[in-house]
Amino acid sequence: MEVVILAEAAEIGGVAADAFAALLEGKPHAVLGLATGSSPLAIYDELAARYAAGRISFRRARGFTLDEYVGLPADHPERYRNVIDTVFVSRVDFAPGAVQGPDGLAEDIPAACAAYEDAIQQAGGVDLQVVGIGTDGHIGFNEPGSSLASRTRIKTLTRQTRLDNARFFGGDLDAVPTHCLTQGLATIMAARHVILVALGRTKAEAVHQLVEGGVSAMWPATVLQHHPHVTVLLDDAAAQRLQLVDYYRETYRSKPDWQGL
């Protein structure tokens, strides 16, 4: 697990965008795992800027979103398929239909989850997966207690997650859905490279558990300690609980120029 601590979100966006660029240069048809929420926004802003400048293209790439609320109308602005279109997909040159998401309006939820899992496999698996982390250590919507072997499925959201997300619904907790579809922890673990972004002091305890705690279903993100290629991108506030913070800073500063994420 590589831990990179930077001063601000814009720097994090640049470092992550470099990883996207390197991947797409060598594999233009790469499969990208796309997360929503506030943490990845700087990445998408930087990628959109590079596309506008002619420095990167997603024309041959494919994308799979991480999760989706159950029951939100197709035109709801907080439906994650609409969010990812707004913050990223519509700003670059993905081919029509190249980005898919779980179907939160499916009549047969288990079948829809199985079909989504199969679509990822048929695409060849995810090359680069972006994730955030919740204050309770969830990734995707794999809440505390989730099976470390889980695949795409329906989950009940904890009250804490709904409180955290109420800001996207005008502060109205009752407007936040109670259920979601999410890639499972084993699905995320199958990605060839995972980039986790955490910003702000409210994420500090979850980051501490992720990097320095024991692997536990009560802190689902800790399963990433078993992944062979994880990059954790943090601002100073999110890193403040790390016991080895000086070591992580020095390790990144002394990395050879040729060694990418």
From TrEMBL:
Pathway: Amino-sugar metabolism; N-acetylneuraminate degradation; D-fructose 6-phosphate from N-acetylneuraminate: step 5/5
GO biological-process terms attached to the record: carbohydrate metabolic process; glucosamine catabolic process; N-acetylglucosamine catabolic process; N-acetylneuraminate catabolic process
Protein name: Glucosamine-6-phosphate deaminase
Keywords noted in UniProt: Allosteric enzyme, Carbohydrate metabolism, Hydrolase
Function according to Swiss-Prot or TrEMBL: Catalyzes the reversible isomerization-deamination of glucosamine 6-phosphate (GlcN6P) to form fructose 6-phosphate (Fru6P) and ammonium ion.
Keyword Hydrolase (UniProt): yes
Residue stretches making up the Glucosamine/galactosamine-6-phosphate isomerase domain: 16-227
